[in-house]
Amino acid sequence: MHRRRQRPPGGPGSVLVPVRSMAAVHVRRRRTAALVTGGGLAGLGGLIVLVGLLAAFSGDEPARAPASSRPAAAEPRVQAPPDPLTPRSVRATGTLVAVPAEDSSTGPAGGLGFAVEVEKGIAMDRAAFGREVERTLLDRRGWTAGGAYSLRRADAEEASFRVTLASPDTTDRLCAPLATNGTYSCHQNGRAVLNAERWARGAEAYGRDLARYRQYMVNHEVGHALGKSHRECPGEGTRAPVMVQQTKGVAPCAPNPWPLESER
């Protein structure tokens, strides 16, 4: 059955719409609106998630590898072997220990004999010290150059002089009445006494070059054993004579551990 409805203000051309059909239309409209609204919300949420994922994977930072649970292994440190010529410790005992020669043929038979001593209480390789003294005194740049002097390594009983490494306190005692003040070396009573602390630390004139400074110490004090006196710097920029007191300073000369030709 159809129910006649009032004509709309539009006039002729109005149509009759079934009541049931109108209700169905309203229901469908509500469902459609709900679907559109719900779908819009769901679509908006999905869009937000998608934008978040794109931002996470499209950043400037590269993807990081997962952190390892194991700590990084420390690289082993390679330590330089200790210098056998540098005392590990210096303690005054007053007891001098002779260092025998390792080779019986160390220098010409007729040369002046020199013996080597190290004070007991100086922790170092005594044999290495003896070799260094011998190497310096028999070097062709040293006092034997040009045949000026003839030197050889000898036992203490037959030595003409001794090269002794001593603690600062013992150095002061052996050098008295010369004032070494626990700092300097000397020649006294047939001994070229080398201060062990100075041997270990060097001098400002030589910087970090301990090897050359030690050669200077040996050659300077043995120079006194050979009768040489102190010299002065002859001029700016020239090599200092080995008999200059280079431990106290060498300027304006250049440091030099070997005797000059004019000194032999």
| Poorly predicted runs | 1-44, 46-62
Rg estimate, integer Å: 49 Å
- Compute the number of helices: 5
**β content, as a range?**
5-15%
Structural class: alpha/beta
List how many beta strands DSSP finds.
8
**What name is given to the CATH topology of the domain at 89-230?**
Collagenase (Catalytic Domain)
How far is the first residue's CA from the last residue's CA? 148 Å
- What proportion of the residues is helical, as a percent range? 25-40%
Shape-level CATH architecture of the domain at 89-230: 3-Layer(aba) Sandwich
Which outline best applies? globular
In round numbers, the mean pLDDT is: 81
Give the H and E element order. Answer: HEEEEHEEHEEHH
Task: Look at the structure and give the CATH class of the domain at 89-230.
Answer: Alpha Beta
Largest sheet: 6 strands, mixed
Question: Would you write up a description of this structure?
Answer:
The longest helix is centred in the N-terminal third of the chain and has 39 residues. The N terminus is likely disordered. The radius of gyration is 49 Å and the shape is globular. A hairpin with a 2-residue loop joins β7 and β8. The protein has 264 residues and is of the alpha/beta class. The chain is built from five helices and eight strands; from the N terminus they run αββββαββαββαα. Strands 2, 3, 5, 6, 7 and 8 form a six-stranded mixed beta sheet that branches. The protein has a domain of 142 residues: Collagenase (Catalytic Domain), CATH 3.40.390.
